[in-house]
Structures are given as C-alpha cells and as structure tokens.
Amino acid sequence: AVKIVGSPNFPVKVYVMLHQKSPHVLCVTQRLRNSELIDPSFQWHGPRGKIISENSTAQITSTGSLVFQNFEESMSGVYTCFLEYKPTVEEIVKNIQLKYVIYAYREPHYYYQFTARYHAAPCNSIYNISFEKKLLQILSKLVLDLSCEIALLKSECHRVKMQRAGLQNELFFTFSVSSLDAEKGPKPCLDHSCEASKRLSKAKNLIERFFNQQVEVLGRRAEPLPEIYYIEGTLQMVWINRCFPGYGMNVLKHPRCPECCVICSPGSYNPRDGIHCLQCNNSLVYGAKACI
Q1: CB 116 within 8 A of CB 211
Q2: Keywords assigned by UniProt (predicted)?
Q3: Which CATH number fits domain 109-182+194-241: 2.40.50, 2.60.120, 3.30.70, 1.10.3470?
Q4: Structure confidence by residue, pLDDT tens digits, 190-220
Q5: What is 3-106's CATH number?
Q6: Cβ of 187: how many Cβ atoms within 10 Å?
C-alpha cells in the first residue's frame, strides 16, 4: 500500500480516488518513521471531529495510520493527527501535531467531438430527419462493442451558397463519442485494453474509417449521387477534457495530481462540466456545484 508521511512545517496534501481505498496516511514524519518510538499514542481528528478506530468508513491501524476503505466526497477536508511518544525510556513525553488535507478526485470525463457535413434534402424535408436517426444508429452500433456511446450534440440544416455556383442544402452534424464504464458495456472487459483512452482511440479510428468509406463508395458510383451524402473532407474532430460538477483541475494548487479532477475546495465551485473550479467566497464546503 502507498504510505504518506506528514510534515511539521506544512499540511500535506493527499489525493484519494472517489469510492476507492485511500493510501495509508501515517501519523509520523519521515524522520520519526525511521526512529524508535517508546509508548506512542495516536489520535486523529477530521472534519467531523475525533475519529475512532471502530468507524466503518475510516480505520486507524495499530501503528496509527489512517485508512479509508470507500472514500466519499463528504470525507474531503483537513485531518489532524496528535502523536505522543518518548524518544527513549528516560526522556519525557514529546508531542507532535501533523496536518493533512485529504481531497477526493475523479478521472477526467474526456471525449471526442466530431463535426461532419452532408449534402441534404430541402431543409423542411422529413428525409433529413430519418437520415439523421439512421446515421446515429449506424455510428452507435459501430462503437458498441468498445463500450462507447454516441451522442448527438447538434444537428442543423442550412442553405449554403457555393463558390461560383448556386445554393445547396447541407446538414451540419455535431456528435460526441465517449466511453462507458467497461464493465457496463455489452462485452465486460477487464484487461489493460479496457482503459477508456484506448477504447476511445479505437472508436475514433472506426468512425474516421466509416466516413472515408462513404467517400470511396460514392467515387465508385456510376449512377447520379443520392440526395443525401457525406461531403468529402468535412469531418473534423477535437479531443475534449471535462471535470464533473464540483471538481476541477489546477496544476498550481495540485502539482502532485496535475491531470486529476480534484474536488473543489471551500471558496470555489464548478457548476457545469467545465475544467476548473471557479472562485466563490460564499462557498463553504468541498465539492460545491453552485455559488449561493
């Protein structure tokens, strides 16, 4: 297990993934960890007061380490350990107080956002609507086995004046592909290839291949083009990072967890799936989703 020691000079920051077991937070400094302690006694206090070892959510080991079994948002906060010990049998009792700030964190919610354009039927035509549904069904089926999902973000029909040509109707699609929890997909996946980033990368490649194949099929057609078809070269893609409401990234405040979505501290909040916690002097809790 990962073990974290305290400092007599400043509060040590500890990061625990939401709903996971925490590292062992030791009630010693690095120097004391390597020393012999006579008759040590440990006492921990957290955001809700004194922590007793019988507590179901937080345990104190026989050597004074604090361990959380299933870390919740509400457990984030300042934890203080009071250590009493004798350096030798003859010396008097010494006291030390160590502070930790323990933060819940989550993996970023990242996804690919695609835009594509199609030559379309007249904008008020029901054919455009049925085509949109069919396209989403095909794309969803394409990434289903990767435990990924497609979501339509925006669909608009516009009349476009072409260069040195007349008007034509075009559909502008914006959709996202994001990863589901691997165990929730149709084919539960447990090895390293199930990482969200790897599954998303495969899904991206399948989608790009699908649009490229549409161009190839149209190029081989002898008959006139269909009324609705993909416009070559219009597929664009961006990688988007987001944190869940109440969480944010801050490499300056959390240099040891720069790519983590760390719970917003008191004095800040994140109302949407943005990437940063915003300042809010009225916010007094960890994980604020509103500034009231």
Answers
A1: yes
A2: Cytoplasmic vesicle, Glycoprotein, Secreted
A3: 3.30.70
A4: 555 677 888 999 999 999 999 999 999 888 8
A5: 2.60.40.10
A6: 10
